[in-house]
Specification:
elongated, two-stranded antiparallel sheet, transmembrane, 307 residues, four-stranded antiparallel β-sheet, 2 domains, alpha+beta, Alpha-Beta Plaits, cell division
């Protein structure tokens, strides 16, 4: 009988406060959509970092023929085959704990396999370049990609080495922008959550105030505080539940349409978040929304429903 009464009161509250229910549901929807977007953005960054950082290599650019600003290239000649072999031996001896693999890429190989793929016909900044304009290089696969600085310190001063670059430098600015976007989204989500909490408390408090006479009668006939409170708490929880479920559905649509259906088809070399990622974070979004609503409702009702 008590459960039936509580459910009946909850349904009555929902019908009486339909407008406020919809407003609370929409605020919850927007708030947790921002939170979900923030989490998905960070998941995308983590996924991309894990994939790219495992693939990136340190490139040791050897001195070219002709002029170079590097003091290691004062001779104006590219290293001989024996000098390159000696440099590889130095890397194996001094960086054995850091470097997992060494690949030598000649000027011709770099031109054929890399440069012309990025710049068809060798046209770069109005000039047509040939293999002779390229540089020999050593591509180092690291056991730990974070140990780039160790490699740079050892090789930067070696004769025949013009420059040492880490491919992660290409991606780090992109990650920095994405991290800032995540921070902005998180701040907006925090503001919206605060609005949702305040609106939840206000909505439930107004609902309780409008039925103050009924709750007083219930108290006089011996109803417990929780019997009186629970219909109002369930009202807010249901609104938050519906709003958070809508936010999860919207995140799923966004991922399906803009990520899986469009971006993943256009840019295929990046790993993307997918429906499984949305599915993994959805329970936390729904649970968080309901818990926040229950807490906000419980606190707001204390003023009206004290024993």
């Amino acid at each position: 009988m008590r459960a039936q009464f509580i459910l009946s009161e909850t349904w009555t509250n929902l019908r009486r406060n339909l407008a406020m229910l919809l407003s609370l549901m929409l605020v919850t929807f927007i708030s947790f959509l921002f939170i979900g977007a923030s989490v998905l953005t960070q998941a995308q960054i983590t996924k991309a970092k894990g994939d790219w950082y495992d693939k990136v290599e340190v490139v040791v650019w050897l001195c070219p023929d002709g002029t170079s600003q590097s003091a290691n290239c004062a001779s104006g000649k590219s290293p001989s085959a024996q000098e390159i072999t000696d440099l590889q031996k130095t890397i194996r001896d001094e960086l054995n704990d850091v470097v997992a693999k060494i690949d030598y890429v000649s000027k011709q190989d770099f031109y054929d396999n890399t440069f012309t793929k990025q710049y068809p016909n060798g046209e770069f900044q109005g000039r047509t370049l040939t293999a002779d304009d390229m540089q020999d290089s050593l591509w180092l696969k690291l056991k730990d990609p974070t140990k780039y600085q160790v490699v740079a310190e050892v090789l930067s001063g070696k004769q025949g080495v013009e420059d040492v670059t880490d491919q992660r430098q290409i991606f780090d600015p992109v990650f920095a922008v994405l991290n800032r976007a995540t921070a902005v989204t998180a701040v907006l989500a925090g503001v919206m959550v605060l609005v949702a909490i305040l609106l939840t408390g206000t909505t439930i408090r107004m609902s309780a105030a409008s039925r103050r006479t009924e709750t007083e009668i219930m108290r006089y006939v011996g109803a417990s505080n929780w019997t009186i409170r629970l219909p109002f708490i369930l009202e807010g929880a249901i609104a938050s539940l519906l709003g958070s479920v809508l936010s999860c559905l919207m995140l799923s649509v966004i991922v399906r349409v803009f990520i899986t259906g469009w971006l993943a088809q256009s840019v295929t070399w990046i790993p993307y978040v997918n429906q499984l990622t949305v599915l993994m974070i959805s329970p936390f979004l729904v649970l968080g929304a309901v818990l926040l609503s229950v807490i906000a409702s419980t606190i707001s009702l204390r003023r009206y429903l004290r024993a």
